[in-house]
Amino acid sequence: MNLLMSRLSGRLARYLSQPGRTGGTAIATDQQKLARCLLPGDVLLVEGTTRVSTAIKYLTQSTWSHAALYVGDAVGRQTPDGTALCFVEADIVQGVRAVALSSFKGLHCRVCRPVSLTGDEVRQLCDFAVSRLGEQYDMKNVLDLVRYLVPTPPVPVRWRRRLLSLGSGDPTRAICSTLLAQCFESVRYPILPRVEQVSAENPGSDEVTREILHVRHYSLYVPRDFDVSPYFQIIKPTLDAGFDHHALAWDFSRP
């Protein structure tokens, strides 16, 4: 039975990794500008165009269907043409792997940058991601995602986030956002923790309450969480490259 399920999951994974009927909703990100603005530790959010991307975007009600971690030269390997493998991601077919920036060519992307990490913490973060290379994708999530490719799946909004955590729960079988959540958890950097307001210990101080952060389980994170997190800075490559609207050429001949 396990062998049969493994074969079925493999076929479904290959089916889900194929292009979907609809593409992205925005202009593709310029690769050269993107390359110039990236720093190790950055999270790259991607608006994918595959069938599995359609399911994830529906469940999360978000533009973003995939997340990868930029690790710079931490992988220490290159493609046959000499391009650095500078991202670590979890692929539905190949598992946790290292890829080049060109893997995201033609796609709409967003850079989310953690702030206040020290150099040692960034290295620890990237090394943790590299140590996961070769692990498998959570194939139980594949079976769950297939059900939400129908045009109008009857899934209430409040349940959708939890539906992405229906996989095996095994941390060695990572999905993309789960993998990244574990990476940042390794250096105790917050993404979207549960915040508890408690009374200040010193009644006479100006601080009436203080916040206690509680770590959410890594399986509950989705790509959009890095976008909406108050702890990640949004970096837009066009603006970072020195955008000047005065230099734009407009054509007003047609509406």
Structure overview:
The chain has about 260 residues and is of the alpha+beta class. It is built from 9 helices and 8 strands. β3 (about 85-90) and β4 (about 95-100) form a beta hairpin. α1 (about 1-15) crosses α5 (about 140-145) and α4 crosses α7 (about 175-185). The longest helix is centred in the first third of the chain and has 15 residues, at about 1-15. The chain is globular and about 60 Å long. The N and C termini lie far apart (about 60 Å). The model has no long low-confidence stretch (mean pLDDT about 80).
Average pLDDT confidence is 78
Tally of strands: 8
Measured distance between first and last alpha carbons: 61 Å
Computed CA radius of gyration, to the nearest angstrom: 20 Å
- What count of helical segments does DSSP give? 9
Low-confidence stretches: none
Approximate helicity band = 25-40%
Structural class: alpha+beta
Shape: globular
Q: Per DSSP, what share of the residues sits in E-state strands of 2 or more residues? A: 15-25%
* Sheet with most strands: 6 strands, antiparallel
H/E element order:
HHEHEEEEHHHHEEHEH
Instruction: Give me the side-by-side strand order of the main sheet.
Output: 4-3-2-1-5-8
